[in-house]
């Protein structure tokens, strides 16, 4: 499956045709999608995985075509776990943690940094490579397919739980954080950069757990933060809090009391780091040890936004404190890794002679 999110739309493959919820690449791309070849045998044979509650209609709305009937036979929708009713009690039980929701095929997210009506647009190249990844790649994971360098030589396939947008306008903005990408891809080939990925399967079995708790938020700690911000989160009924702390995962003692009140009120609190690269290390300094005693758990090297989504998903299943902590700290799709490879942290500093020499030997 290929999902594109550029100017607010989603593109999928449905039996060789393209459909979209809203124009995904702007008006200038209306002629782009029809000329792309979507073979009858592609993503998972001849069908498509559906996400409940999506609605589809033909992208080229002015050509008079009507979308074919949408069949849900590819997935038994009664197997999809829905969130419990509002206010329903959640029993403290041990939940099986699925790996990657057991998808047998690649799921590729794609977009563009520049709109398709601009000569420098990356929309077409990104989309073509994303479709190739979905149709031909052996990587059965959720991935992001976007430019590798700023030129249009190739794209990178990033693991969905370790990718982040790192520049407001560069076409090469997406970077795998604390690790390396899954693969390089262009029109002619797919070059794997690692082997520890989940392989495409021939079966059509999938486990989808859509449980989700919306009352979770991220708090980006800053100097002079006051305790009333945390108190307000509790008063508004939030059940989960992700803190992006300084250094190894720290906050100021001024808000200790509010953190304690939040934990006593049943709020589940996890610490991540603002640095993005590296791990939360709360045993190193006294401050970190004090914060843990307040009821805050270290979220290892999960990115703040990833920790947020995982806590939403976890609290949709249970409210038991120990079970929440177990699920949060158990890797599901490499959102937590055992180590950061030596080449997982590369941030070049301009002006330094050796970096300038390197930049002269390669193109941006």
Report what the structure shows.
This protein is an alpha/beta fold. The chain has two domains: 2-192, Rossmann fold, CATH 3.40.50; 216-328, Rossmann fold. Helices cover 20% and strands 16% of the residues. It has helices at 32-35, 123-136, 227-235, 256-264, 286-293, 304-315, 321-328, 353-361; strands at 2-4, 11-14, 17-20, 57-58, 107-110, 142-147, 155-159, 163-165, 174-176, 183-185, 190-192, 216-220, 240-245, 268-273, 296-298. Strand 8 and strand 9 form a beta hairpin. The longest helix has 14 residues, at 123-136. The radius of gyration is 22 Å and the shape is globular. The two termini are 31 Å apart. Residues 5-93 have low confidence and may be disordered.
Please write out the topology:
Elements: E1 2-4, E2 11-14, E3 17-20, H1 32-35, E4 57-58, E5 107-110, H2 123-136, E6 142-147, E7 155-159, E8 163-165, E9 174-176, E10 183-185, E11 190-192, E12 216-220, H3 227-235, E13 240-245, H4 256-264, E14 268-273, H5 286-293, E15 296-298, H6 304-315, H7 321-328, H8 353-361
Parallel strand pairs: 1-5, 5-6, 12-13, 13-14, 14-15
Antiparallel strand pairs: 2-3, 3-4, 6-7, 7-10, 8-9, 10-11
Helix pairs in contact: 3-4
Class based on secondary structure composition and strand pairing:
alpha/beta
Q: What is the helix fraction of residues, given as a range?
A: 10-25%
CATH architectural grouping of the largest domain: 3-Layer(aba) Sandwich
CATH first level of the largest domain = Alpha Beta
How many individual domains? 2
What can be said about the biggest beta sheet?
6 strands, mixed
Strand arrangement, major sheet: 1-5-6-7-10-11
